[in-house]
């Protein structure tokens, strides 16, 4: 089975415990969302998976075999990371040739085709690109390497909305044509919720959620209506925030909804993934709790 | 009146016309969203407003007086831009002291207070910060300078969802407590639609939309239902994309909705700002049009 097994991985940087006994499987041919706050440990995990940094303890197995000193296993994964390791002044088209040496299944023709869709000029040096176009350059490679595992760390950083839209479409196309395991780490949670199947939430170096997007989304809902009615309804509910506008109120609630107990005159919708994530990862005693979750 | 008047500004870089006869007013005490594709001219406009770069022709007036060689006018604007101009190795807390010299109304106590909310360690050198925390550092200054005009270029780049949430809340708080004119340039359109009043869309150096968020949002809608019914309904409509799932279809339509002509069994919602933006700024003959707008 083509899976990545992460077994009891821990990693400390100085005083900071970046990963704390992390165990997780990334199964074959699934798209995962790896979500977490800034500094939660997402990038550390992705870098350990691909042997760019080494864990203090624990191991990573690909198809049951440890990735340590295992070029075959490592060659089956591609990590699009924040850092790029191309020589200064290298042009994009030359980076494509260079990639082909390390990833024999890299499809240069396809990379050039999607570069054109994004209007990326492949004659430019990589270092001359803006934040958005640096991401696009990395996307053109990640979507063309054709490895069984593709790991994407903040793939849409700096991209405009149209380009993000195009990226999500190309990703789904790629996944349909060449099924593979994709792990996307991103802060644009609401957008990515439309392309991912499973969600892994990491918080302070620990996995706090690992379930299907659908299952997680079923755990939160909103209730809207006149303030008095909503206030009465939510009295004994786990309310995580609200919006008010004139006499109207929307409350965000964690838990399973029981539609039969809903009073007349209120409307209910699912809680979106981003708001759910924000609540699940807010820290106890966090200063920001003095604000309403009103947006 | 405290307004920024941009009069017939043009700017060319080499072969590229970055701004093409741009005329626009930013009125007192409003929050504007300055939206555009990568490379549309947003940053050039913001840099010209603050005299960091000079236009080839046209002028910028603040309260009716040209900003050229006018330190008072320039001191009334603060631009949070992609580039930071602080000396290498300068610590955040020293940057706060430095800011106070140039912006006498800068509230250092408040900057430190919100730094703590974001868990920004102000003893760190600015250059040691991650992408997200570099944005947070700049946010703490922008929300504390207390100038009549605050211009924010990609303020939430790299921020996690919780921090973006906190930023939007603090921005609204600031605006309520000290009304001012705020211009936000961002690619996270759906999120910002909740805090902005007016929208300015720039495309290829030209202003293509300048109207209230509400007015713009009233111009698009979606229709969902069984494929056959939706297909019949949209026959003579300006359809900009659709989603299909089994026998169901959602069509995205530009134009005013006439609810009386809606057939039974279809549901309609407003088109969100991001999808509307994507369609308005897609270029004719753009390669990406070969894809459905399906996300």
CATH C-level of the largest domain in chain A: Alpha Beta
CATH architecture assignment name of the largest domain in chain A: 3-Layer(aba) Sandwich
- Tell how many strands the DSSP assignment of chain A holds: 14
Oligomeric status of the shown chains? homodimer
H/E element sequence of chain A: EEEHEEHEHHHEHEHEEHEHEEEH
In which range does the helix fraction of chain A lie? 25-40%
Structural domain tally of chain A: 2
List the helices and strands and how they pair.
The structure is a homodimer of 295-residue chains.
Chain A: E1 4-13, E2 16-26, E3 31-36, H1 42-49, E4 57-62, E5 65-66, H2 71-75, E6 77-80, H3 92-102, H4 108-117, H5 131-142, E7 149-153, H6 161-177, E8 181-185, H7 189-192, E9 198-203, E10 206-212, H8 213-217, E11 220-226, H9 227-233, E12 238-245, E13 248-254, E14 267-270, H10 273-281
Parallel strand pairs in A: 3-8, 3-9, 6-7, 7-8
Antiparallel strand pairs in A: 1-2, 1-4, 4-5, 9-10, 11-13, 11-14, 12-13
Helix pairs in contact in A: 4-5
Brief summary of the model shown:
Two copies of one chain form a homodimer. With 295 residues, chain A is an alpha/beta fold.
């Amino acid at each position: 089975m083509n899976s990545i097994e992460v077994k009891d991985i821990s990693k400390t940087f100085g005083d900071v415990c970046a990963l704390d006994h992390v165990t997780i499987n990334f199964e074959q041919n699934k798209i995962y969302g790896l979500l977490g706050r800034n500094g939660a440990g997402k990038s550390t995990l992705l870098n350990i998976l691909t042997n760019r940094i080494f864990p203090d303890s624990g191991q990573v197995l690909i198809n049951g075999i440890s990735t340590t000193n295992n070029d075959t296993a490592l060659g089956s994964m591609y990590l699009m990371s924040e850092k790029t390791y191309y020589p200064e002044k290298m042009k994009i088209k030359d980076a494509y040739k260079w990639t082909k040496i390390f990833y024999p299944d890299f499809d240069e023709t396809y990379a050039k085709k999607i570069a054109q869709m994004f209007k990326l000029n492949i004659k430019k040096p990589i270092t001359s690109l803006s934040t958005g176009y640096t991401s696009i350059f990395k996307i053109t490679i990640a979507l063309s390497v054709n490895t069984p595992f593709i790991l994407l760390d903040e793939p849409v950083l700096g991209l405009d909305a149209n380009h993000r839209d195009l990226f999500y479409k190309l990703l789904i196309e790629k996944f349909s044509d060449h099924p593979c395991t994709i792990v996307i780490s991103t802060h644009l949670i609401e957008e990515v919720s439309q392309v991912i199947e499973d969600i892994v939430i990491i918080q302070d170096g620990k996995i706090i959620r690992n379930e299907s997007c659908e299952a997680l989304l079923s755990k939160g809902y909103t209730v809207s209506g006149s303030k008095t009615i909503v206030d009465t309804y939510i009295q004994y509910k786990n309310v995580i925030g609200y919006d008010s506008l004139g006499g109207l109120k929307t409350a965000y609630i964690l838990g399973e909804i029981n539609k039969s107990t809903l009073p007349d005159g209120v409307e209910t919708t699912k809680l979106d993934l981003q708001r759910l994530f924000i609540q699940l990862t807010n820290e106890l005693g966090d200063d920001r709790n003095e604000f309403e979750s009103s947006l």
